[in-house]
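Subject: two folds for Thursday's group meeting

Dear M.,

Sorry for the delay on this. The cluster queue was jammed most of the week, so I only got both jobs back this morning. I'm pasting them in the order they finished. Each block is the input sequence followed by the predicted structure tokens. Could you check whether the formatting survives your parser before we put anything on slides? The first protein is the one we discussed after the seminar.
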Amino acid sequence: MSQSGLPTDVWARLRFTSLERLVLFHCTFLALKAEDTENRSRGTVDDLIHGEREHFAHYIVDDQYEHVLRLFKDRDSGAVRLQASVRSGDLR
């Protein structure tokens, strides 16, 4: 069921030979989703994922562009996510 309560159709079935390939696909999918100019109102890749807690955040400079580097930890699994986002400049 979708969030609207309507039935949904399976449009893809994915099977990965390793966890690394799954993570690579996930990161690529999120990057492509962030580039979707049609649906900016849905949020960004930088959105906090449910159950995560931010443990660290600091500004960094990479090739003269300001970024924010953040470290999140999932409460239930203990998994750690490192995320960098543009703070200012042409890339924003």
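Second protein, same layout:
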Amino acid sequence: MVLEATMIVVDNSESSRNGDYVPSRWEAQSDAVNLIFSAKTQANPESSVGLMSMGGKGPEVLVTLTTDFGKVLDGIHRTKIRGSTHLATGIQIAGLALKHRQNKSQRQRIIVFTCSPIEETEKDLVKLAKRMKKNNISIDFIAFGDLEPDNTKKLEVFNENIKGGDGSHLAIIPPGPSLLSDTLVTTPILSADGVAPRGGGAEEGGAESGGGGGFEFGVDPSTDPELALALRMSMEEEKARQEKEGKKDEPKGESLEGIPEENQPLLDGRGEASGSGGDKMDEDKKESNESKEEKKDGDGDGDKMDTA
């Protein structure tokens, strides 16, 4: 899979308090950030993900590029909802963070969540898009919340001017009963990484595509570890059962030659031990009888000589 360095920019403005997305716009973003991190790092373990916010007094880098999921979670929990967004400035700072990545072979990508009005003009956004494209940075927008025509038009114009070989995507997700992260899985932003929808809603064969970079069994272990563990244990038990049945069906090995007692009763018809041991006892008994008869014959001959 593609080796990428990804900066995730979250919208922590006052608009993110709205509850039109389950459970709220901010919580929906947090859940989606977890999903994106898991998708990127599972697609390629050497990919790294960073996190920053663009609300409040100004953009803030919460976590530099990392493969440690705990740092990203800590960054989300430290973020406070306040102020308005600074979209253009946030994208520029994210671009600088990608420029200083340690692994220069990683492709650069920025994923921006926006749920509030965009204050930048269309002209400024076009100029920014061309600059990012020149620096080989792909930018994905996840637009939700405030989906006014003016907002969506600005984002569409930005997307048209930054599209390149690596692909920059725009996902517009209206409010609905589904989680933001579940809807995000079906968009090109994550579907390219082979992510299966959570809760078993993947297409047939999605859970078995081990090389596709998707979650095993179609379940994200970071969000539902108990279900993932139960499915794994069930699979291992079924595998063990099949191996056990396979051993039962195997033909039994032939008895070893030269060991007849394996297939013979312990006692023969006379109540004596069977097999080689019994034969030996019979031979010893026969020899003893013969020696007694010879001795008796010898004694008879001696008596006759004395009489004579």
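Two things I noticed about the second structure. The radius of gyration is 40 Å. DSSP finds nine helices and six strands in the chain.

Cheers,
T.
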